[in-house]
Design brief:
Shape: elongated
Radius of gyration: 27 Å
Structural class: mainly alpha
Strand content: under 5%
Helix content: 40-55%
Largest sheet: 2 strands, antiparallel
Number of strands: 2
């Protein structure tokens, strides 16, 4: 029996997003950021949709990040993990046994 083929994400480890969608999302981020910086009302709260900077800047930024399949920035990806401790695992100290029925009435 043959093995199943590797998924397409394993064959192409660094997929690039569609340039048209990427340009649109980038423009939405820049427009939302400009609105929040320049127009004080855009820093407020709307009864219909909630906190406006979240929708004008935060959600387009998360869409931009999602286009790159949630990869971390290179600085965080290349950071070395902290070395593991080599000693034995800590053990919980045992409590002395108490007599349950020491005071019989």
């Amino acid at each position: 029996m043959s093995k199943p083929a590797a998924s397409s994400s394993r064959r192409h480890p660094e997929p690039t997003p569609d340039p048209g969608v990427l340009r649109c999302v980038r423009q939405a981020v820049m427009a939302g950021l400009a609105l929040v910086v320049v127009w004080p009302a855009a820093r407020g709260h709307s009864e219909w949709i909630g906190w406006l900077p979240l929708w004008l800047v935060g959600m387009p930024l998360s869409a931009w990040w999602a286009l790159y399949r949630f990869r971390l920035p290179a600085r965080w990806r290349n950071r070395q993990a902290a070395p593991r401790r080599r000693g034995p695992q800590a053990r919980r100290a045992r409590r002395p046994a108490r007599a349950r029925w020491s005071q019989v009435a």
